[in-house]
Amino acid sequence: MAIKLRLARGGSKKRPFYRIVVADSRMPRDGRYIERLGTYNPLLPKDSEERVKIDMERVQYWMSQGAQATDRVSRFLEAAGVVEKKERANLKKGVPGEKAKSRAEEKAAKAAEAAEAPAEA
C-alpha cells in the first residue's frame, strides 16, 4: 500500500481549508484517510502561526513507515525544518514569453524617447 502525506480540501466555494492527512494514494483527494496530521488555511496571512499546524511527531512516525509527502506538504515540512530542501526544476516558467519581451522593449524605447525629449527642449 502506497502511503502519502497530502492535503484534503474542505471549506466552501472560494473559501478553501485543507487538512494535512495520511492516506492511501489510491483513495480520492477528499475521500478516506488514515489519520489527520494537521491543517492549512491559505486565507490567513503568511506570517500567521495559525496558517499551518502540523503534529510533527506523527509526521516523523509516518515518514519512518515509508510515507511520501506531496510537493505542497513537503514544502511545509521544509519550512518547519523536518525535511531537507529539495532542488526543484522550475524550467522556464519564470521566463517571459516573446510578446512580453517585445512589449518590454517597446516600453523601454518610449521611456528613453521621453527622457531625451525634455533634455532637447
Topology:
Elements: E1 3-12, E2 15-24, E3 35-40, E4 52-54, H1 56-64, E5 68-69, H2 71-80, H3 98-120
Parallel strand pairs: 1-5
Antiparallel strand pairs: 1-2, 2-3, 3-4
Written overview of the protein:
This protein is α+β, with helices and mostly antiparallel strands. It has a domain at 3-80: S16 Ribosomal Protein, Chain: A. 35% of the residues lie in helices and 26% in strands. The protein has helices at residues 56-64, 71-80, 98-120; strands at 3-12, 15-24, 35-40, 52-54, 68-69.
CATH superfamily descriptor of the domain at 3-80:
Ribosomal protein S16
The whole-number mean of residue pLDDT values reads 88
CATH class of the domain at 3-80: Alpha Beta
From the structure provided, what is the oligomeric state, counting identical versus distinct chains?
single chain
How many extended strands? 5
Q: How far is the first residue's CA from the last residue's CA?
A: 77 Å
Weakly predicted, low-confidence segments: none
Q: How helix-rich are the residues, as a percent range?
A: 25-40%
- Main sheet summary: 5 strands, mixed
Apparent shape: elongated
